[in-house]
Write a structure and sequence with these properties.
By secondary structure, this protein is α/β, with parallel strands linked by helices. The protein is built from eight helices and eight strands; from the N terminus they run E-E-H-H-H-H-E-H-E-H-E-H-E-H-E-E. The protein has two domains: about 150 residues, HAD superfamily/HAD-like (Rossmann fold); about 60 residues, DNA polymerase, domain 1, CATH 1.10.150. Helix 3 packs across helix 4. The longest helix has 14 residues. The radius of gyration is 17 Å and the shape is globular. The protein starts with 8 loop residues before the first strand and ends in an 18-residue tail after the last strand.
């Protein structure tokens, strides 16, 4: 594990990092495909399209089907189905609650930066009773740019008055890692998410570490902040 200093702020990706949302996305996607007479897709295929936000998800699916010209109708249907049940099957990954509680107890600020449309994030956070943990939540449509642009991460830093090198970005994809590198922010990659290539979460150019569970980070978080000053 690369030596990471005690953070003043931890920014989390959502899908594939804090929560396993693939089941709900699969239901919305397959309901959409059924409406369009396209074949239903297994969970492992759905996971390959997660990470860039809803628009990118639909674009990749339609590219797979050879129907890129169907975007407008497909996106509208997908969002309709996903809005109806955004958190029915979504659960937190093992180890997430432990780390969030430790961070909160230690006075570390927390935020979420996802590429998912902002309107879908709130229902998930509320369903999982995580409302009180995050000081700021950004979706892929909250700003003009989204990950891998560094702007969402830097926006959070500015809003919460924390320098990027005093933060951790925690994510499961190349977009998360690239955003951290572009923001010059230490990165924590998680192996249990939706990334297909292990090298995606081992970026060059910033301090980083890779964990199999967020619970592995708890030894780096202590109520005694001075231990890591």
């Amino acid at each position: 594990m690369t030596k990471l200093t005690f953070p003043d702020l931890v920014i989390f990706d959502l899908d594939g990092t804090l929560v396993d949302s693939a089941g709900d996305i699969q239901v919305a996607a397959n309901n959409t495909f059924e409406e369009l007479d396209l074949p239903e897709q297994p969970l492992n295929q759905i996971k390959r399209w997660i990470g860039g936000g809803a628009q990118v998800f639909v674009e990749q699916a339609l590219e797979y089907f050879g129907k890129p010209e169907w975007f407008e109708q497909t996106y509208r249907l997908f969002m309709q189905f996903y809005r109806a049940l955004p958190a029915d099957r979504t659960v937190m990954f093992d180890g997430v609650q432990t780390l969030l509680d430790q961070l909160k107890q230690s006075g570390v600020k927390m935020a979420v930066v996802s590429n998912k449309p902002h309107e879908l994030i709130g229902p998930i956070i509320k369903h999982l009773k995580l409302d009180d943990y995050f000081e700021l939540v950004l979706g892929g449509d909250s700003l003009a740019e989204k990950k891998p642009s560094p702007e969402p991460l830097l926006h959070v830093c500015r809003e919460l008055k924390v320098e990027p090198n005093k933060c951790w970005m925690v994510g499961d994809s190349s977009k998360d890692a690239e955003a951290a590198v572009n923001a010059k922010m230490p990165f924590v990659g998680v192996t249990y998410g939706y990334a297909l290539n292990p090298s995606d979460i081992r970026p060059q150019g910033v301090k980083h570490t890779v964990v199999d569970s967020l619970e592995q980070l708890t030894p780096l978080i202590s109520v005694e902040r001075d231990a890591y000053a």
